[in-house]
Write a sequence for this structure.
């Protein structure tokens, strides 16, 4: 199983910026914890961070046919980016959006996530642990999608075999 982890603007400043909101962990430390968890579950992670909306859109598009799902923290773009939402909708992959802070306890403009509308689910407010919860959720969703796809293929093969017998 392969998952793209896409990080939005200013997340490269974690551990430095607004520690009272985001905590002391750096993005590299969060990624190291994710790698450890992923390795235990035979999941490969690809990490990407950008402060540029277009680069995030490009990375999402590159996920089509190359990964099984996307774990994304669009950060401030959550509240403004129709382009990122459209890219997520276009690739139509299982996607979990995560936020370190509880966006519903913050300023009113942060309480609406445009990108959430293209996500399978959203996890918000558990600090860096949000990424761990997101990873667990996404691996479960991907497993369920794969199982459903396999069941459809088996049913189609069985139906074809029945037609050929007649």
């Amino acid at each position: 199983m392969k998952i793209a982890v896409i990080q939005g603007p200013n997340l490269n400043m974690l551990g430095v910026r607004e520690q009272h909101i985001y905590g002391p962990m750096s993005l590299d430390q969060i990624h190291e914890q994710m790698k450890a968890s992923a390795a235990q579950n035979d999941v490969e992670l690809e990490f990407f961070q950008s402060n540029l909306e277009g680069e995030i859109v490009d990375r999402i598009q590159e996920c089509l046919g190359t990964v099984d799902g996307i774990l994304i923290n669009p950060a401030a773009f959550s509240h403004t980016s129709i382009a990122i939402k459209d890219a997520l909708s276009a690739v139509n992959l299982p996607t979990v959006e995560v936020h370190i802070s509880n966006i519903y306890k913050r300023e009113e403009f942060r309480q609406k996530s445009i990108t959430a509308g293209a996500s399978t689910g959203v996890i918000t407010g558990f600090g860096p642990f949000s990424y761990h919860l997101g990873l667990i959720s996404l691996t479960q969703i991907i497993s369920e999608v794969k199982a459903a796809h396999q069941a459809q293929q088996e049913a189609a093969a069985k139906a074809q075999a029945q037609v050929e017998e007649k």
Summary: The beta strands are 2-7, 44-49, 69-73, 95-99, 121-124.
